[in-house]
Write a structure and sequence with these properties.
Blueprint (H helix, E strand, L loop, with lengths): L2 E7 L6 E7 L4 E4 L5 H14 L3 E5 L5 H4 L2 H5 L5 E4 L1 H22 L12 E2 L5 E4 L2 E9 L6 E6 L5 E5 L15 H14 L5 E4 L8 H19 L5 H15 L6 H14 L9
Parallel strand pairs: 3-4, 4-5, 5-6, 10-11
Antiparallel strand pairs: 1-2, 2-3, 7-8, 8-9, 9-10
The structure holds zinc ion (ZN).
Length: 275
């Protein structure tokens, strides 16, 4: 049974995971973290293990998971693999992400990004020696396009991307939370009872991770709906306060804060600016 390694990058206060699956002869990486340093840390772990990287698989279309790809695959012949939907969303949004992330992260946001080089159809199985993975394409959810990767025949280890953050604040600004909730329902039903979920942020967990995620999304959207949006700043602060008491940890709080106004706008709560 292939072994799984987690590499957590905490560059610039942004904890995010990449994983390596170690087979008999080669390695497969899942996600690449956000930054140059994070991607290099994955590369260093690959070198320490001492087996070639066969492929880098991407779970979803957010830059904190593909940004470091250029550093992960440098010097290797690894293909970068994603479903067509994930690939299209990454390419479409990369320029917008550059404009947002360059001022936040400077040179830690790679100057040159690597995009998928191999597309895999939804549901397809993928084998590298004794490493077998199946992709489940989800469509819009946490990001504009999500997928998850299931390891082995019994699929009891799942690289679930950001379907479930493990007790960290979450990003909802893309506005597809209703789809996200539907994915959570489907995954709770479909995944084995003893599944190990290896998320994009935080520690691995069982299926309860998906229940926690549902609770967070419902609390967040409820707090936005409850805000008195005639006063933007006050309403925003109320949501931030509500979520800070829902989850005491500060991890990724900036992602939650970035999500308040987009979700309020999507719910039709923001009046046109009077300034
Ligand atoms: Zn993420």
């Amino acid at each position: 049974m292939p072994e799984t390694h987690r590499i957590e990058s905490e560059v610039a206060g942004t904890p995010v995971n990449a994983y390596l699956v170690e087979g008999e002869r080669e390695l497969v990486a899942i996600d690449a973290t956000l930054t140059v340093s994070g991607g290099r840390a994955v590369r260093e772990r690959i070198e320490a293990i001492g087996k070639p990287l066969a492929a880098l698989l991407l779970t979803h279309a957010h830059p904190d998971h593909y940004g470091g790809a250029v550093e992960v695959v440098v010097g290797s012949e690894a293909s970068v693999v994603a479903t067509p939907g994930v690939d299209a969303a990454i390419r479409r949004d990369d320029e917008t992400k550059e404009a947002i992330l360059r001022p936040m992260f400077g040179d830690e946001w790679p100057r040159e990004r690597t995009f998928p080089t191999q597309l895999i159809e939804p549901g397809a199985e993928f084998a590298f020696g004794d490493i077998e993975l199946t992709v489940r394409d989800l469509g819009p959810g946490e990001s504009p396009h999500d997928s998850i990767w299931l390891l082995g025949d019994d699929q009891s280890t799942v690289f679930c991307g950001d379907q479930g953050y493990n007790r960290m604040h979450c990003y909802l600004a893309d506005g597809h939370w209703e789809n996200w909730l539907a994915h959570l329902d489907a995954l709770v039903t479909d995944l084995p009872a003893d599944v190990t979920l290896l998320p994009g942020h935080g520690d691995g967990a069982g299926r309860e991770l998906l229940d926690w995620q549902r609770g967070y999304i419902e609390c967040f959207v409820g707090a936005v709906r409850a805000g008195a949006w005639s006063d933007h700043e006050r309403a925003k602060q109320e949501v931030v306060d509500a979520m800070a008491s829902y989850l005491e940890a500060d991890d990724l709080r900036f992602l939650m804060e970035l999500s308040v106004e987009p979700v309020a706008a999507q719910l039709g709560l923001l009046e046109p600016s009077r300034s």
